[in-house]
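Hi P.,

Sorry for the delay on this. The queue was packed all week, but I finally got your sequence through. Input first:
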Amino acid sequence: MNTAHGVIGLERETRSKGRIFGLFKGYWAAFQEQRKRERLRADLSYLNDFELRDIGITRGEIDYVASNRSIDPRGVRSAGPTNF
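Then the structure:
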């Protein structure tokens, strides 16, 4: 075995480990995101209807809010009044 063959083999092994690590990293991020959604869903479920109304959602919107954390279910109302 010459030096070039050894280096090529090492490069392939490193690339393979990088792909495996990247795959594991993606699964871990998805797992963490799922846990955050479940925690948010549980926290919102513990609130009473008045508290939910106070933050602008209904009990029926809890699953939607937990699943789409970046989307505001209240839409335009969340922008507040504008004074011209």
